[in-house]
Automatic annotation (TrEMBL):
Gene3D superfamilies reported for this sequence: Hypothetical protein af1432 (1.10.3210.10)
MF term (GO), any: hydrolase activity
SUPFAM superfamilies the record matches: HD-domain/PDEase-like
Organism: Pseudodesulfovibrio aespoeensis (strain ATCC 700646 / DSM 10631 / Aspo-2)
NCBIfam families: HDIG
Lineage: Bacteria, Pseudomonadati, Thermodesulfobacteriota, Desulfovibrionia, Desulfovibrionales
Protein name: Metal-dependent hydrolase HDOD
Keywords (A to Z) from UniProt: Hydrolase
A Pfam short name: HDOD
Domain (HDOD): residue spans on this chain: 20-217
Length: 286
């Protein structure tokens, strides 16, 4: 166990606020204004993002891309929010923020950024659909949590590439899941690392906690149901992507908590895997 390494790493994480391509204050205001109980207007959301002209330009570029298929071009963030919805604007900004962290960085050999985002989006899609089916949590929030669930892996690869390689080698040698190898390597998994960063960005617990506990939802003190949705979605995505049955036992254990059968969950995942949205989303970020 590399305690010195992990302690040094943990001390760095709050400083990543400064690595975002825009002020972290944008996140705080945006999530307050787009929350379920918020009375903020579309104009107020537009003003929050309009304080950073570069961010506004990028948001509008994505909003007008083929992915969203709008019939008419939107020329303001407030109009984009009206057409796409507040939650979608929030997801665009979050994705731009996370993807911006990687600009100018050399990722370790074996880390495929396109595959990373493909999995995040796939899990997000599954989580949103399971939320709708089971009426657990808020579908929009769980989609966002799905987009963020493995940000800890990205951060390890960015900030500690040698350790990312070491963890991967351990996982391969011992036939471990990534989270198991991380626990063995330095006593902490990527879910905790990701949650610490998201908390430092002032994101709300409804997003941070499902990410924090998505490998152990039964231990979550306050958001166990939402964490279960993310965990089940993650396992289902891996099962479909890798065509392996190693996730069956985990799905069998957790699916009853959602009042679903494993076969039902996998059917949802397999249908969503055929969606063209995933590849279109990847192209948005390239």
């Amino acid at each position: 166990m590399n305690q010195d390494k992990i302690q040094s790493f943990l001390r760095e994480l709050p400083k990543m606020r400064n690595d975002l391509p825009f002020s972290p204050e944008v996140f705080r205001k945006l999530f307050f204004q787009t929350g379920a109980s918020s009375l903020a207007s579309l104009e107020e959301v537009g003003k929050t993002l309009g304080n950073d002209q570069g961010l506004t330009t990028r948001v509008l570029s994505l909003a007008n891309s083929a992915y969203y298929g709008l019939q008419a071009e939107v020329q303001s963030v407030s109009r984009a929010a009206a057409v796409l919805g507040m939650a979608e604007i929030r997801n665009i900004v979050l994705t731009l923020g996370v993807n911006g962290l990687t600009r100018g960085r050399t990722m370790p050999n074996g880390f495929d950024l396109g595959e990373y985002w493909r999995h995040q989006f796939f899990v997000a899609m599954i989580a949103r659909e399971l939320s709708r089916i089971t009426e657990v949590g808020n579908p929009d929030n769980l989609f966002t949590a799905g987009l963020l669930h493995d940000i800890g892996k990205l951060i390890i690869a960015m900030r500690r590439p040698e350790d990312w390689v070491g963890i991967r080698e351990l996982a391969d040698a011992e036939d471990m899941l990534d989270a198991e190898a991380e626990e063995e390597y330095w006593g902490l998994d990527h879910a905790v690392i990701g949650a610490l960063v998201l908390k430092s960005w002032d994101l709300p617990p409804t997003l941070v906690e499902p990410v924090n506990w998505h490998h152990a939802p039964e231990l979550s003190p306050g958001h166990s149901n939402e964490a279960t949705v993310i965990c089940v979605s993650d396992c289902a995505a891996h099962a479909v992507e890798e065509e392996e049955d190693r996730y069956d036992s985990r799905l069998d254990a957790l699916c009853p908590d959602l009042e679903m059968e494993r076969e039902e969950v996998l059917e949802v995942a397999e249908e969503l895997a055929e969606s063209k949205d995933i590849e279109q989303f990847i192209r948005l970020l390239s």
